[in-house]
Design brief:
Blueprint: E1 6-11, H1 14-24, E2 28-33, E3 36-41, E4 44-50, E5 59-62, E6 65-68, E7 71-76, H2 78-90, E8 95-102, E9 110-116, E10 122-127
Parallel strand pairs: 1-4, 7-10
Antiparallel strand pairs: 2-3, 3-4, 5-6, 8-9, 9-10
């Protein structure tokens, strides 16, 4: 059984973070305090901590896109990925990198899109037609 991961990351404030992760992405709110809040992020625990400096701008070119080096996300089933992409767009969230197929026709072909939360944290959502391709190299 795959165990849930835990990730802590910086945010500007709790309320915009709560609205984004709960209302836009559908994450359930867990424990919280004045300067941090936990979410159930597709079965994983993420903890948003208020920090004074959340800016990171560095990117790396990946299959034609400038991908932020610092990002996190989740690999979703094919239909759930498409539905989330539609939901995000309908809720007015701008894509940093719009939904697309990366590495088309190659090992590791995947659907991907990137969005940014209100604190500037970049999230990537991926999908594979076959989850077995997640770590495929050839």
């Amino acid at each position: 059984m795959l165990r849930p991961f835990h990730l802590a990351f910086p945010v500007r404030d709790i309320e915009s973070t709560r609205r984004f992760y709960r209302d836009i992405l559908g994450a359930e709110v867990g424990r919280e305090a004045a300067r941090w809040i936990d979410f159930n992020f597709f079965g994983h625990q993420i903890s948003a901590h208020v920090a004074d400096d959340t800016d990171t701008v560095r990117t790396n070119k990946v299959d034609g896109d400038q991908v932020p080096v610092r990002h996190f996300g989740v690999v979703l089933p094919w239909e759930q990925w498409h539905a989330l992409g539609r939901d995000v767009a309908e809720r007015g969230v701008e894509f940093l990198i719009e939904p697309r197929t990366r590495f088309a026709g190659e090992p590791g072909e995947q659907g991907t899109f990137f969005i940014v939360d209100p604190s500037g944290n970049t999230l990537e959502f991926k999908t594979f037609r076959d989850d077995g391709a997640l770590f495929t190299t050839s």
